[in-house]
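Structure tokens please, single chain.
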Amino acid sequence: MDFKKQVVDALVKVLPDEITEEQVTKLIEKPKTSDLGDYAFPTFILAKSLHKAPNMIAEDLVGKIETTGFEKVVNTGAYINFFLDKKAFSNSVLNEILNNKENYGNADEGKGRNVPIDMSSPNIAKPMSMGHLRSTVIGNSIAKIIAKLNYNPVKINHLGDWGTQFGKLIVGYKMWGSVEEVEADPINNLLKYYVRFHKEAEEKPELDDEARAWFKKMEDGDKEALALWSWFKELSLKEFQTIYNRLDVQFDHFTGESFYNDKMDAIVDTLEEKGLLEESRGAEIVDLSQYDLSPALIKKTDGATLYITRDLAAAKYRKDTFDFVKSLYVVGSEQAEHFTKLKIVLKKMGYDWADDIVYIPFGLITTGGKKLSTRKGNVILLDNVLNDAVDLAKKQIEEKNPDLKNKDAVAEAVGVGAVVFHDLKNDRRDSFDFNLEEVVRFEGETGPYVQYTNARALSILRKANVDYSDAKDLAIADDQAWDTIKMLQDFPEVVKRAAKEYEPSVVAKYVLKLAKSFNQYYAHSRILADDEGLKARLALVKSVSTVLQMSLALLGVKAPEEM
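Here you go.
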């Protein structure tokens, strides 16, 4: 039952004809606390046409509203406050959740249409740091959220596997490395060469020229250059995959920048045909001065391609391959100008679908207020953070539940979940300073708090051992349960809002509130009292567990049955 519609219908009958149903629907508010009602209508909009003070209008209208189906309708100042029939509401919400189970909140908004998501995208031959976590988990969560609305997410790991940095790495390896050393500890040693290259290049700028020359060899198909590049890439992918497995993140395509090498000539040709390509100091550019932007550099003076050339080719390939309704890029906020240029150039090329490209920026993870930097060796390795979080989870489990089965698996789910949830509970645009103790904290507004709340709910159901599936009447009029039941009803709208805003924190903040509300209900109610309301209360517990698990799943966090 649509209870908001019930409120709108009651209002429309007593409001002036010029106030439309659509206007009323937009004006309806939800009071912050239940003592002010469940829905509220502000009467300020009527003051001018009715020539009355809003509080007087509210008082007059309350006397005319048909209250059947409501607990009561009252006016508070300029607001008309509607109190819903708790029994009818709870019966409707709980039955809907129990009947739909994990499909509760599903919608056919996307109609199965494709949405490629460019996410994670670490650079080959560099370790995955905390800086890579954000794009990975934000993109993964957005994919899960939009899938619930029947879009078809296509997760693409656009690996940084091409570019001048590989020239630098080859130079570093040939100067200071060996096969034995790289095979023994691939990523850390490749990183060591890369960092050393940047330090030495400050004193010896000719090293940069060598690096550019090696990258040009790669582009020209030089066998030695490509063999080294291919080796570095293979070693890196093995390391990356272990972390993706721990995060339970899968990809539909591992199409890195190199995948588009044979697709860039067509882009350059189109730019030439459209008269968009200009020569500037020996390089080829697209002039964007009319947009107050620096030029889009398509080819360098030595003919080597650049990041934007590959991104233009990637965008065209994704449209041709997936015929997307939207194409999402989950990339750090420092890339804003790049994506502005990308869309402008595509549009100039005559591709109106450029309007369907959505750049989803996120803030930085810093340490001591400073940006993490691979080239300076200032990185916090993601694998180390996950290990520390899992170790802390194990200690907590040993203290609180030493006889727990599958302790290692639960510790992994809780520790990794703590790291993922900590990232996603922050508004994605916000930056935050990395603090290990804060990330793996198990009290307060954390993933483990939500996981434990779900485990508690399942424990209540096991302890009750009562079959409530045959109960048709799930009406609950208990004031203690009311806020929890209302939050359960909010879940479908939370999913839609998170999808619309591409904002996983909407789900994370919601599930924290739901967990807190349920724990307060648990603390003040005798859920297992053997009376006529037992089955309805157990249905509420089951519904809470269902929505907690779905919310965690949308964030990419597991929900252990016991903790």
